[in-house]
Design goal:
Keywords: ATP-binding, Cell membrane, Coiled coil, Kinase, Membrane, Nucleotide-binding, Phosphoprotein, Transferase, Transmembrane, Transmembrane helix, Two-component regulatory system
CATH superfamily of the largest domain: PAS domain
Mean pLDDT: 78
Catalytic activity: ATP + protein L-histidine = ADP + protein N-phospho-L-histidine
CATH architecture of the largest domain: 2-Layer Sandwich
Largest sheet: 5 strands, antiparallel
Shape: rod-shaped
CATH topology of the largest domain: Beta-Lactamase
Domain HAMP: 192-244
Membrane topology: Multi-pass membrane protein
CATH class of the largest domain: Alpha Beta
GO molecular function: ATP binding; phosphorelay sensor kinase activity
Distance between the termini: 62 Å
Strand order of the largest sheet: 2-1-5-4-3
């Protein structure tokens, strides 16, 4: 019983093995005791009633034993039961059973004389431990103008009827046996349908452990298995996403590290080739080397930010009371200059007075700076960037709106994933795809949220919402 299939079969068939015999016994008991015996008793009572009606017009018969015996002999030939005529005191006047010498003869029960004299009918079933020895008795009083003059007593042994009971039991057995086998067969089939998806799931988990390619499984019908397979498919989708992110990371690293390394190699070769002899040339080469080194340092900082443990973010925040007006002026100034150098219109809309908030000005400035960097990077010359700040009751919203290419709705949830860069029809833009992921983590660390609204061809709007308390 160490497999799910065997346990399922046992749980399905064991109740059948226990319940089916009990059902058979109950069914046989009901058919024999409650149907056949009652029908037999009713039939005997009807016969006794007819005979009682016949004897109501024969007053002399009850005073002469010979006439009574003659009546019994004549009518008993048409009956399967033993026929007896009883006196009002319960003694036998005449009987078709020659061995019956008293009311209790032949295994019959004692006649209730009191009920007989009151004119009450009596139906009795005498059970026996020996099959076929049970007796059904019916006593019907005979009335004449003077009252009860006697009774018709019919006695039917079940011996002749017993073969009918045996056939009934055999029929019930053979009727229930196919149902039992059918239940076992259904249990086998259901066990297969339950075991098949479990085996497939187990095989897929084995492939996962071996590092093979993962494939989503079709969802089975049972709710529990469907939930389990759906969870596994979600895991597969997550692992595939992580694998795609890993490959994208490698590709981005190769590009982002290879480009500055190539520039550094070119500068080194130029200096070794004598370009350093000219002071202006040497100064320009060293400035280029410094720029590329700064790019590499920024790349390393972004990677460190992404892989920092989230549970330490709040501890790493250097929170202090900060006037938003002064802080925004410091953060926006360099990006305004970068936008104007690229020929982009720059606008800032903010109230004359903004509240003071408790933030980490450096980390939150990095988050806003990443949004502004993307706006400058993706907005073409001649476009426009607008920064809109407004405060509500308990929130302050900072919007960065640009006229860049926009982001398709299907990609708007994924752009915040690390290393994800949505395919654009425009020229390649350098970067690791980490800026938005870092911005979201720092905004969330402040208890806020970041949202995007974008329409392809009409630009994008990123909104940072921060609580004032």
């Amino acid at each position: 019983m160490n497999t799910l299939r065997r346990r399922f079969i046992l749980s399905h068939t064991l109740p059948l093995l226990l319940v089916t015999p009990l059902m058979a016994l109950v069914l046989i008991y009901v058919l024999e005791r409650q149907i056949l015996l009652i029908n037999l008793s009713t039939q005997l009572e009807r016969q006794a009633t007819v005979l009682a009606e016949v004897l109501q017009d024969s007053p002399d018969l009850w005073s002469e034993a010979g006439l009574a015996q003659s009546f019994v002999n004549r009518f008993s030939r048409h009956l399967t039961a033993n026929l007896s005529l009883l006196r009002p005191d319960g003694t036998i006047l005449a009987s078709s059973d020659t061995g019956e010498a008293r009311p209790s003869a032949s295994g019959s029960s004692e006649v209730n004389v009191e009920l007989l004299q009151l004119g009450k009918r009596q139906v009795m079933v005498n059970y026996s431990q020996n099959p076929g020895e049970e007796i059904v008795e019916v006593i019907v009083p005979v009335f004449q103008p003077g009252g009860v003059v006697g009774a018709i007593h019919l006695t039917q042994r079940l011996g002749p009827v017993y073969p009918r009971f045996q056939r009934l039991r055999t029929f019930v057995f053979w009727a229930l046996l196919p149902g039992l086998f059918l239940g076992v067969l259904i249990g086998l089939v259901l066990a297969h349908f339950v075991e098949a998806p479990m085996q497939e799931l187990s095989q897929q988990i084995g492939r996962m452990a071996s590092g093979d390619a993962l494939v989503a499984l079709p969802e089975p019908q049972p709710t529990e298995l469907r939930t389990l397979v759906r969870t596994f498919n979600s895991l597969v989708d997550r692992l595939q996403t992580l694998e795609a992110s890993r490959r994208q990371l490698v590709a981005n690293l190769v590009h982002e590290i290879g480009r500055p390394l190539g520039a550094l190699r070119s500068a080194v070769d130029a200096l070794q080739g004598g370009a350093g002899a000219a002071p202006e040339r040497r100064k320009a080469l060293l400035a280029g080397v410094d720029t590329e080194l700064q790019h590499l340092e920024q790349l390393l900082e972004e990677l460190a930010e992404v892989y920092a443990r989230k549970e330490n973010e709040l501890r790493r925040l250097q929170l202090r009371s900060t006037r938003l007006t002064d802080w925004l002026g410091t953060v926006l100034a360099p990006w305004e200059e970068a936008a104007r150098r690229k020929g982009i219109s720059w606008q800032v809309h903010q109230p004359a007075s903004l509240p003071t908030v408790t933030i980490d000005p450096v980390r939150l400035g990095q988050a806003l700076g990443n949004l502004l960097s993307n706006a400058v990077k993706y907005t073409p010359p001649g476009g426009a960037i607008a920064v809109i700040v407004h405060s509500e009751r308990d929130m302050v919203n900072i919007q960065v709106r640009d006229t860049g290419p926009g982001i398709p709705s299907a990609e708007q949830d994924r752009i915040f994933e690390p290393f994800y860069r949505w395919p654009s029809e425009h020229h390649y833009q350098p970067g690791m795809g980490l800026g938005l992921a870092i911005a979201r983590e720092w905004v969330r660390a402040h208890g806020g949220q970041i949202q995007v609204e974008s329409t392809p061809g009409h630009g994008s709007t990123f909104t940072i919402s921060l609580p004032l308390t």
